[in-house]
Amino acid sequence: MISRLTGKLIDRELTEITVDANGVGYGLIVPLSTFDSLPATGETVSLYVHTHVRDDAIILFGFATVEERRLFRLLQTVSGIGNRLALNILSSMSAGMLAEHVVNGNIAALSKINGLGKKSAERLTVELREGIREVVPEAGFGGKDAEKGVLSPAGHDAMAALQTLGFKAEQARKAIDEICRRVPPEQQSSENLIRQALSRLNT
Fold it and tell me: In terms of Cα–Cα distance, which of 62, 73, 59 is closest to 7?
C-alpha cells in the first residue's frame, strides 16, 4: 500500500495528476482543495495517499494534508458514500467548513453538494458528529460563533464569494475569521466582510 508519495509533478488536471517518482509515473485522483495547493508542473510535490484496490485496478487518491485523507476515509464510513462522492464532498468545501456543517447539523448546506442529497446529508450529521471532531480538532463548535470559530451565514456567503473571485478556501476562511473577531456583529454583513477581506487579501 502506498501511503505517501514524493516526486516531480509532470501533469495536472482538475481531478487527476501524474507524479514521477524515480522514473515511474503515478496517476492520482485529487480533490480541488489539494489541486489548489499544487506547485507548478515540473516542481516537486509530496502527497498523502489513499490506496484503493479493486479486482480490476489499483486507484490512488492524493491529498495535500493528513487531515484531508482522514476526512476522505471517515466520509466513506457513512452508508452510500464511496470514493467518488467523498472526493466530491472534499472538493466542494474546506475541511473546517465541512466539520462545522456536520456538527451544527446544517442539512441545507450539505445537501447542496452534488450527489449527496438530503437523506445522505442527514446521515452525515448523525453518524459523523463525534468522529469529525477528532479529525478536525481545530474547528470551533458551539457557543458564540465568533468566539468558537464557526462562521455565521454572512461569513459563509462572504467566503463563497471570495472563492468565486479566485482565492483559496483556507486563505478566504482565515481572512473572514480575523475580520469577524475584530468587527462588531452588527457590522458583519456579507458585503462588509467581502470588502474588508478583499482589502486585506489584496495588500
Answer: 62
